[in-house]
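Title: Comparing notes on inverse folding

I've been comparing how different people in this forum approach sequence design from structure. To keep things fair, I'm posting one structure and asking everyone to reply with a full sequence. Here's the target:
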């Protein structure tokens, strides 16, 4: 038992070590964009659900917060201030599937194929979701949800943009570095628990759950034509029960892949961070239970269909990676290589931003409401 616990903790530490610098890089970029691009500016561009508006919403989402909970809060604001349902949900999908740090982490832990599957699949998700929403659009339900009086609770993500008529003026504003530090600190405050849970869950499952159990769950012995759709249906259901956000899901995705899940099944699991139970409850608080149920249904079908499309496409071109890679050995290898120096450099940057952000949050009255859960 002690040996297995040590293995689990070593795996968790290895996952955190391999991905640490990418998280700091991604959160810094996200914090900068939140400081110079306001929600109001995004909202004015997303009032319609045409191709241009969907593309703009997707680009804005890709450049925004990587935290599922913060992205859901921004989506709520966009929708309730006039953005269409399709563009609001496109923003949500993009902000959790097309962000930089998620793709880089997938590349480091699982290979370029999963990075490509996540980023290309993010676009497929948005296209499939847009088609489903336009096909089934519940106009009365959407308007009721837009006016819904929210219940208390949820993840707060309070931020504001710096002053300036142009992007250049905003970047040169002395307040920009302070706002970036505050946004960075709030992002970490929201996300560190989910990341820690994700790494620990991934580590303990890799150590305590035998490979045979994963193989039976993902039907590794059945014909590929049957395995692919069943894995796509199963992946999101596992994600619903994990409670962790988009980046926190990656360590467990590596465990599922090592255990025999199909390429599409793992992608379906990764896509499904937007329907974990805490987020479903957030949708209920934001829009009421009927709209929450509609969003959950559309999202589930979208994730299954998109993962199947990606599985078939990668298989057709011979791009599905091999299961032979020893994920555990790779993740628990520590050396004085580029990862060490990147973690050191970005660790110093994170410490400086955290110090500056905390100091100015106390001064500006943000203390106590900097993005903690509830």
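Reply #1:
Here's my take.
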């Amino acid at each position: 038992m002690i040996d297995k616990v040590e293995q689990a903790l070593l795996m968790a530490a290895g996952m955190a070590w391999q991905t640490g610098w990418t998280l700091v890089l991604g959160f810094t970029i996200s914090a900068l964009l939140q400081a110079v691009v306001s929600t109001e500016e995004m909202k004015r561009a997303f009032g319609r659900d045409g191709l241009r508006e969907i593309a703009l919403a997707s680009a804005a989402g890709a450049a925004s917060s990587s935290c599922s909970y913060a992205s859901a809060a921004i989506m709520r604001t966009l929708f309730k201030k006039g953005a269409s349902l399709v563009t609001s949900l496109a923003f949500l999908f993009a902000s959790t599937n097309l962000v930089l740090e998620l793709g880089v982490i997938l590349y480091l832990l699982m290979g370029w194929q999963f990075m490509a599957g996540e980023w290309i699949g993010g676009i497929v998700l948005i296209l499939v979701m847009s088609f489903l929403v336009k096909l089934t659009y519940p106009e009365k339900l959407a308007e009721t949800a837009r006016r819904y009086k929210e219940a208390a609770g949820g993840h707060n993500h309070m931020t504001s943009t710096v002053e300036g008529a142009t992007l250049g003026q905003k970047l040169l504003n002395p307040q920009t570095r302070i706002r970036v530090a505050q946004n960075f600190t709030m992002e970490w405050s929201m996300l560190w628990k989910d990341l820690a849970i994700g790494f620990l869950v991934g580590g303990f499952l890799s150590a305590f759950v035998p490979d045979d159990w994963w193989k039976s769950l993902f039907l590794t012995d059945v014909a590929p034509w049957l395995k692919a759709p069943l894995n796509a249906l199963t992946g999101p259901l596992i994600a619903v029960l994990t409670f962790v956000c988009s980046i926190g899901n990656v360590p467990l995705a590596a465990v599922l892949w090592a255990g025999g899940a199909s390429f599409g099944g793992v992608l379906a699991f990764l896509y499904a961070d937007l329907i974990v139970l805490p987020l479903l409850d957030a949708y209920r608080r934001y829009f009421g239970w009927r709209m929450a149920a509609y969003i959950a249904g559309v999202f589930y079908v979208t994730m299954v269909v998109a993962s199947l499309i990606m599985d078939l496409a990668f298989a057709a071109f011979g791009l599905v990676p091999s299961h032979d890679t020893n994920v555990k050995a790779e993740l628990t290898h520590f050396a004085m290589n580029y990862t060490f120096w990147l973690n050191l450099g970005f660790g110093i940057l994170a410490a400086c931003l955290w110090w500056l952000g905390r100091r100015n949050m106390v001064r500006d009255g943000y203390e106590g409401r900097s993005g903690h859960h509830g």
